[in-house]
Amino acid sequence: MPSVERQSGTSLSDINMVPFIDVVLVLLIIFMITAPILQSGIEVDVPKTKTVKELTEVRMVVTIDRGQRVYLNDKPVNIHDLGKQIISQSKDAKHQAVYVRCDETVPFGSWATVVDALRQAGIQNVSVVTQPLSERPQAQ
Fold this sequence. Notes:
By secondary structure, the protein is of the alpha/beta class. Helices cover 31% and strands 17% of the residues. It has helices spanning 18-39, 82-89, 108-120; strands at residues 48-49, 60-64, 70-72, 75-76, 97-102, 125-128, 131-132. The strands form 2 sheets. It has a 5-stranded mixed beta sheet, with helices on one face. Strands 1-7 form a two-stranded parallel sheet. A hairpin with a 2-residue loop joins strand 3 (70-72) and strand 4.
């Protein structure tokens, strides 16, 4: 009777990690590219100034775009309902800080109307969002 030799070798049961790592890196790159875009859906070219304070907390942001449309936290809002909506979303409206992002091409009258609507609602802490002014040598 012939004897049958049995192999005691191990099978290939190891998981190949290279494709998994490739997929994770591609997803990481996609999220890194799309995250800044999702941060603010309304495109506004804010004015540039030398003094800029970095925002560290999430606050209420009122945005006025090029078409002079008003948004509260990226949602369109009627200028007459702006104060009511901020008060309804805030716990302490008198001390609530509201940031106003305004496109630099918007007339001053539109910006003043929004700030006036905030003041009439009792909101006194209004700040303007700007970008840092790039330091360029003046050409002479």
